[in-house]
Amino acid sequence: MDNLESIIEAMPSEHQKDFTAYLQRLKSKQERKDIDLFRLLAEKQNLPDKEKSIPMYLYGKKPNLVAYHALRKRLMRQLADFILLKSREFDLSATASVSELLALARYLFDRGVEKTAWHMLRKAEKIAIRNDHFDLLNTIYHFQLEKSDSEFADPLESIIEKRNQNKPLCEEEERAVIAQALITKQLSQARQTGAVPDFESIISTILAQYQLTTVISKRPAMLYKLVNIARSVVLVRKDYYAFEPYVIQQYNATTFELRHGYIQLRMLYMIAQTLYRNRKFEESTVYLTQLYALLQDSQKSYWGQFYPKYVMLMAANYMYDTKRDAAIVLLEELLKNQGKSLSIKDQLNAQINLAFYYFQQEEYGKASRLLLTIPHSDQWCQKKMGMEWVLRKNLSELIIQYEFGNIDLVVNKIRSIETTFEALLKRSRNIRMYMQFVKELVEHPETFTDDVFHQKVEAAFVFLPVEQEDLQAMHFYAWLKAKWLKRKYYDVLLELVQSS
């Protein structure tokens, strides 16, 4: 696969459609070979020899190879332009704003519109200062020095002074980039050897080596990057208990100003999520309440990113803290009031979570109907959400049909899961055991009253230590246990979560 094909394959289907429309707008020609080439590559036509067959498809039996290679180069340029436009469309960051203002200033200087160009430079400078973008400020001051002979320029002495004040900060930023790379490497090496990495020690040692120890607490953006690196190690090992005191300590030691709102929101969510993973649901709710209060006073652009996550995590805390009704109301209102504006991932996560909450409340019809409203195939969902998410959806559908008494549908669903998720089942002993015991429940329901069989089930599941076990991994096991205990599923689930 060459570079052109790799880029096209990486594009989501909606972006491929947008790109085709973009090409059609560029020219009014009826014959558009660039569109034909793009479609051939995007649709992955099963052509025996692409180097020969594609030119023949485009140009006939005697293809013009010179024209074909020129067409490929043009398509590559068009893809680059389109991707740049797309990135600007979704990148609302200060970096993007400053870069666009600098590009506009250069354009205006080239055309002699110096007054407006200088206005754009000052605007870019203010945004960069407000967001601690010292590397961009360095670029801005160099540009201002180049254009300091303009009658609309700031005083030269002022530019030089600002440049000199910014230079040490810019150098700190450069040292921080090096430190982050070294921290990432050392943590990765420790993880590969199977050792438990002491991320706090590794981070503090490297920060001291690069004279950054006292800088971090004053630079929230830099701190967030480092904490996020440590979190990446935690995600692999699922050791949230070790991460919890570190992230809270770093947050409390940091000075956040109004301009650091975005970073503070991300830190608060990270802490709340860590506490949730550690089953400290009330404490997690406290940090989520702080997040919501900060979100109320933040830019509107942050709302779409953080509010759905806030609602889903708050609902999860409520659900495990015996406040299931409140959790359901939160998600129902989110889907009703924000549904059309939610990202695909947020919408799908909200739907599957709410369906599970309905199931816990024994409202199986509601749960089933909600899953049926997902307007996409499992294959499409897998591309967006991953295979584990689709497996969770299928397992949910399986137990819903069992509760309906639709045994034939349950048997068919079991076969489908075993075929579709064969690779995932091979990697996970607990999922394999779960499927085996569900089949036993369907084929020999009388065995679920046998104490010996209960012991067999208990022994078959291997759970991680409490500090590493994923809460969602316990959901389906709790359903099985509720069946042999002949108790309500939600009560059994809460007991498992609180006792483990």
TrEMBL record:
It comes from the Bacteria. Gene3D superfamilies: Tetratricopeptide repeat domain. This is Uncharacterized protein. It comes from Xanthocytophaga agilis.
